[in-house]
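[09:14] KT: can someone run the structure on this one? pasting the chain below
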Amino acid sequence: MSDIIQLLPDAVANQIAAGEVVQRPASAVKELVENAIDAGADKIQLIIKDAGKALIQVIDNGCGMSLTDARMCFERHATSKIRKAEDLFAIRTMGFRGEAMASIAAIAHVELKTRRHEDELGSCITIEGSEVISQEPCAANAGTSISIKNLFYNTPARRNFLKSNPVEMRHIIDEFQRVALAHPEIFFTLHHDSQEVYHLPGTTLKQRIVHLFGNNYNQRLVPVEEDTTIIKLRGFVGKPEFARKTRGEQFFFVNNRFIRDSYLNHAVTTAFEELLPDDCFPFYVLFIDIDPSKIDINVHPTKTEIKYQDEKAIYAIIRSAVKRSLGRYNITPSLDFDQENSIEHLITPKPFEEIIAPTISFNPNFNPFANKDEKPRQEHPFLRDSGGYKKDPIPQNWDTLYEISKKESLFQHEIHEEKTIAVDEQDVSKPSERQLFQIHNRFILSQIKSGFMLINQQAAHERILYERFLQQLQNHSGVSQQSLFPQSVTLNGSDFELLRELLPDIRALGFDIREFGKNTVVVEGIPAELNNVGEHELLEHLLEGFKNNMAILKLDKRDNLARSLARNGAIKTGTKLSLEEMNQLIDQLFACQSPNQALNGKPVISTFTMNELMERFEK
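[09:31] RB: done, structure tokens below
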């Protein structure tokens, strides 16, 4: 039997390796921009077409490469960052593995133009699927310009699994934001399909955060700074009142490298204890500067995971530093034990002789059952005054108040008088015949033939709106309530791309929205069912809920959108309802296809039979 184990060709090996390094266009963007930073560039331009599927181009003014280096950079395990294994414990550069350029060249059409500052001519190399097509001198600007065209052209399976353009563009923006945050001193620009998405001049970290996420973040940031023998910590955390219910605005950087670490994230969230609900996540951008010999970043090809020698100490430092910053800037409540809290400080001092004690005047001979024509002996009953009696006469026909109070109680009893509601048969009585009560502004109690039922008012309204919005999405029949004054809403780049993706369905729900400049939309109308909600708040919560559902439930896009909008537009627990509103809510609930199932799968209605009640009292 002949030998069956063979050495794979370089082109095939590079395509296999590319699956780990380049998973989507955003992965190529990350590798190219990090190479530009390692080259010492202070100006980096990123140009995207067709969400990176047609073109990814990075232009920098870094050190450039010689003709030999330009050719060598596309070989596997070829790098200028390290020379020996010991260098892995002193890495300060972004890249070091020497696989990115070879992997990209294996699955795309690549054109590289580069020139060193001291050279007169640069080099131009064209590669297709790891095969060098041409290599020649050319005129080029100092630095490097690399263009990636037709990504995954020779791996159709990977290309077919790419998402829609807005989704892929969101991933590119996420990678761009991380690199831009890590290097605020560098000038960055991002263009997508000939439109400028970001224009970020070199500045401070706080201004870079504001430029990336919007001007409203300027008042949300709390600085954090700590210098110890183990790590140096700096950055910003967001104020608790601006926390969101979805992840995505949490950034940890170790030696200016973005990482994902749930353990360190837990250190930040515990610092916000008792300041945030359990389902909210604070905003933070934190930088850790640590000795490279005390960490290992060669854990995963994407280099987003790091192992630490003293993980518990780093956890404690981060937690205490964030907590102290929140307290220093009066975010957390504090007690001043030096303050005198005696009762004397609550009352304005006044001389004792000027204090006049209040007196009460009353008529001891007053008879409420006396004849109307009989005049009382004194005309000033039940007057409270400190300086004499008032001369106002006694109101006539006072005894009719008893009759009025009786009528009011009878009238209220008639309103709440009820026939029965059969839940099983959905035999709901007429609204005028129901007896309804609201308990703690949270539940609606209604009597039925077998006992009574409790309805969760928020879950019921969510179910009503959810089925209504689903039907509107299918029929494109959403009714819009036009705003008196159109509102402009500015979003961050990722949310703006998500909104563009959802725009047809959002308009079908009744939103009247149009794009207005970079990352800005104008809301001229919202669904008629939600006319009591602010446009900016509604749109932000809609996108936030959509991302949260997508991460947890993996729902269909339309189902996700209807679910998110229903949860944001429903009446909340603690809202007081009138009798008419409760009747309307019950009518609409029993008209739903699934009236007893909330959006989270729990019941909307709980019934209690008379037998259950009798058993409780007979125990």
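[09:33] KT: thanks! The chain has 16 helices and 24 strands.
[09:34] RB: yep, looked fine to me
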